[in-house]
Amino acid sequence: MHDNKPNGERATFSDISHGTQHDWDIISREAQPYDTSVGERVLAHLKLLEGEYGGFPIDRLDHSLQCATLAYRDGRDTEYVVCALLHDIGDTLASYNHYDIAAAILKPFVSAENLWMIQHHGIFQGYYFFHYLGLDRHMRERFRDQPDLYMRTVEFCEKYDGPAFAKSADALPLSFFEPMVREIFARTPNSIYTGQKIESGA
To answer: What is the pLDDT at residue 196?
Structure first.
């Protein structure tokens, strides 16, 4: 019940079904600065990965930076690099399905191919360790019927996600990637709230 924070004009309804055009004009106007600063909040949330190791050789932020650095130095485009940077951002809130969080954040702003890659990278990365946990390391084989997406995600894990755990890696700092993140999240989002067509299953 934080109702004492000054934050511009507000709608007056107590039940959303009673909202008027005037109410929604207010909301559309007042929400705009918040909605368009999502990139800044994503960067702030990414920083929460710093100092969290979970038994890994490096912390989760360093892993993200290494992954993005490898992709960048391999000549990948800005969107791909940002996907690499944010692929594990869900670790803070979704230990059992972190890839879903990353995909949900990126979905309105990236291509279907990059979205699929991030959505499924958890299963594909599992090829390297699932058998140590009593799981099927070949779980990714269920996606063989989508060869382009399959190979794209295999490559992401093999070239960028997998090798990004080196203690002495020369990773680029987060400040280097911040303009890229802002660029991607400044795009007009593919969202029901912007009147864009939403592809089912994307």
So the answer is: 66
| Contacts for 32 with CB less than 8 Å, ≥ 6 apart | none
Q: Which of 86, 74, 164 is nearest to 125 (CA)?
A: 164
d(CA 42, CA 109): 13
Q: What would the mean pLDDT of 124-139 be, rounded to a whole number?
A: 98
Which residues have C-beta within 8 Å of that of residue 45, sequence separation ≥ 6? 89, 92
Q: Are residues 91 and 104 in contact, defined by beta-carbon separation less than 8 angstroms?
A: no
Instruction: List pLDDT tens digits, range 69-90.
Output: 999 999 999 999 999 999 999 9
- In this structure, what token pair is assigned to residue 123? 């299963």
Residue type, 34: Y
Residues constituting the chain: 202
Task: Spell out the domains of the chain, with CATH numbers in brackets.
Answer: 38-185 (1.10.3210.10)
CA distance 140 to 67: 21
Radius of gyration of the chain (CA): 19
Distance, CA of 47 to CA of 174 (rounded, Å): 9
Rounded to 5°, angle at Cα 97 from 70 and 47: 50
CB of 115 closer than 8 Å to CB of 202: yes
Q: What is the dihedral of CA 42, 48, 49, 53, to 10 degrees?
A: -170
Of 182, 156, 173, 179, nearest in space to 47 by CA: 173
